[in-house]
Design brief:
The structure is a homodimer. By secondary structure, chain A is mostly helical. Chain A folds into 2 domains: about 5-150; about 165-495, Neurolysin, domain 3 (Orthogonal Bundle), CATH 1.10.1370.30. Chain A has helices at about 5-30, 40-60, 60-70, 80-95, 100-125, 125-145, 155-160, 165-190, 205-220, 255-275, 290-305, 310-320, 330-340, 355-370, 380-390, 420-435, 440-445, 450-460, 470-475, 485-495, and strands at about 225-230, 235-240, 240-250. In chain A, a hairpin with a 1-residue loop joins strand 2 and strand 3 (about 240-250).
Chain lengths: ~500, ~500
Amino acid sequence: MELNTALEKLQSLQSKLSAYNHATSLIYLDGATYAPKGTASNRAKTLSVLSEESYMLSTSEETIEMLEYLDENKEKLSEKDKRIVFLALKDIKEMKKIPVEEYVAYQQLVVESEDAWHTAKENNDFESFRPYLEKVFEYQKRFAKYCAPEKHPYNYCLNNYEDGLTMEKCDAFFETLRTHLVPLIKKIANREQLSDKCLKGSFDDASQERFSIELMKIIGIDLNKCALATTEHPFTISLGSHHDVRITTNYDKENFASSMYSVIHEGGHALYDMNSDDDYAYTFLDGGVSMGIHESQSRFYENLLGRSRGFVEYVFPKLKECFPWQMKDYTSEDIYKAVNLVTPSLIRTEADEVTYCLHVMVRYELEKRIMSDELEVKDLPSEWNRLYKEYLGVDVPNDSEGVLQDSHWSGGGIGYFPSYALGSAYGAQILAKMKTSINVDECLKNGDFSTINEWNKNNIWKYGCLYKPGELLEKVLEADFDPMYYIEYLEEKYTKLYNIEE
Amino acid sequence: MELNTALEKLQSLQSKLSAYNHATSLIYLDGATYAPKGTASNRAKTLSVLSEESYMLSTSEETIEMLEYLDENKEKLSEKDKRIVFLALKDIKEMKKIPVEEYVAYQQLVVESEDAWHTAKENNDFESFRPYLEKVFEYQKRFAKYCAPEKHPYNYCLNNYEDGLTMEKCDAFFETLRTHLVPLIKKIANREQLSDKCLKGSFDDASQERFSIELMKIIGIDLNKCALATTEHPFTISLGSHHDVRITTNYDKENFASSMYSVIHEGGHALYDMNSDDDYAYTFLDGGVSMGIHESQSRFYENLLGRSRGFVEYVFPKLKECFPWQMKDYTSEDIYKAVNLVTPSLIRTEADEVTYCLHVMVRYELEKRIMSDELEVKDLPSEWNRLYKEYLGVDVPNDSEGVLQDSHWSGGGIGYFPSYALGSAYGAQILAKMKTSINVDECLKNGDFSTINEWNKNNIWKYGCLYKPGELLEKVLEADFDPMYYIEYLEEKYTKLYNIEE
């Protein structure tokens, strides 16, 4: 084979897989937003065909021969192509270990499982969802055995979202968080509580949508390449390349902050995806490198920036424009305090920064035990409720607000949750680094996101998947990852907010 | 080859092509509804890959060998499989005559061309759209030469929408219409004009959407399998099978009837598509057989049913619920008269039943002349305006309301327009036939669409593409097609409405 021929074939493979990706992502987005209720099996049928086609294409002899040839000649490749070949070979070799029928059946399962989850959440009926969730976990265990028999099955899951992550690392990380955050939460609980009255009232969808679009503009999202839709559980998705990205939100008619912070969170994901180097479009390097790094960006915008005093001050006039009578008695300081109210609660996506990681730990603990065969899916609701009581001190009134609250497991996202906590901690250290060259507080006060985004683009976003997550993090931080940045950020911010004496 | 093996291969081919269809249709729908403005080239890239994949799959030696084997053994096949093989061979042999590069480039062109049309229509800028439209016509001429060198190129176009249709038939049909309708229009013009004041006012999108959903329910659309979206130019599209169909509309804030009749029109298309025999899902027999028959259904619901006195009476209370203060001074009789006001106008989709076909004739004339090399695209706007003056007596104030008003040409729909007029005429004869066994007026007055839909399902819808359009029509009518049914329907209805003395 000629090197050029092989590179052309690689290009064509990437174009085709990007197109399949566009199609399957759009079908997923449609299912979660606009599709009529009774159409899941129609989508499942199409997705099983498309996933089989892309499996066959990826694992064909011709593809593997081409990739292995390029791998053998990697010293002749550019840094970009070298990384592409590495990623492709890794993914495809793993995919090939899964029998095609199981691969396809699993794609079909998750569509039906997500549909079942929607209905189950609506009806507070875990039992109707249980058979699907059992199958999802069974498949994950089987896939772990096929793909990484040498690893603990849960480490296989973790690695799907953060290359190199292990239970040991997670345990240590969560232990550090727990050691510092539990005392902080106790101290806060002993102080006078902040009020979130100003977030509550009556907020129609149209005004919330208008406010969402304002927020997208403020944080610097190009609306020519990104649109907003509504769904049950907010997410971000790229369609084929970083040239078309969609975010979703869910309007709480009684609390505008719920959607506000979903939009900023998903907006952070979108900014990361949309700002890959343009040369990476339609290649395996396009978009964010791992869920840990992804969440470092989404939770960076949501919390480190979005819940700062400067940002809330800047946004407040827009908020008053969209909700004039609801805001008439409040100041930006009221909003700032309200969106930083710390209180153990039921719903992860609406949790404050301090208790947030405890929500993640519940999920981590449960996933780990199921993947270790120490817990059965049927016992998930009772264990969920027990851990919420133990970690957060709250009683879970029903499964819809308990074990059914998140969409991740229904879609096969086992091992995803730790990324949220890790990402939050990465983000705090990234912020500290950013502050050595940018006056972030000043930018926020002035709504100057172009300076902040420029820094993120040059240091993180543009690289797409060129580096491993760990490498990228080291490159941007110029130091090892240290969760104490996150803890110190939380301690400093909330000690002030709650007037806690050291 | 074994017969069973061949039939399995046929099944697999149909599943795959249905899946590609789902993907490409959804990408089209997304582009026309929710997608951000700057993403057309991203969609074009994906569509070019998917269309190449489906071209290669359809025209592969293996596929053709299988189809030819089945064709040689057709006496052993069921009626259904026989028709599937016939349709597949016909389409694929034709497709294979087009070089793959041109086939793919054309798919990409139409995405970009539709995007250019949107912008051109918005900006009243035909010149920016002209190069795209020129290319669309060039491709159509080239495809006609490849696929049907023995035919006039415009007959090739007509046949893409109505098997067996020719310019000769169209000319005769339109001449009949002209002979009878032009005198009717003149008589109406001499009578006192009806008022459409009651349709006009201020109608917010949310209330119009609520009313649209009511209309979909009334005409019997299963909302579990069909959803509504908004777009520039309303259309209906099936996603992979008749189990998921979408209709679109466009809300005129100053006239609720515009969207009302779009919804009923597209609803007619949707009913037809959604009621194919369930056995036909994921086969080439799924959905409507031709655009002529399709328009016979859409325009049947829109006009023959939707603009009847009985229907308007039945719908009026719902209309008042959705628009209470706008309707407070009006009666259902006011609405009935207003939606049947006859007046030569600019916009086809909003034209009354009597002048409608003149709008179609303008387009027919222009397409025919371009495909005959007797007119150039650059001269379309001036010729459009000249014919509107000649046929309808109206002055076209700008291209947005003139030659740019319809989306069809931008998407390659050359030869489509005659279907609207033909379908309208088919519909009138179908109605006459239906009335021999059903009391249609009584059904309309009672909002009983199940009886009407049942008749349509048993006589038309369930057959999908099992019969040729001409055969199906003959089967349902038990007579030859005769445009006089349509003319007599119009003469009777409008003579009464306008108190014209015979």
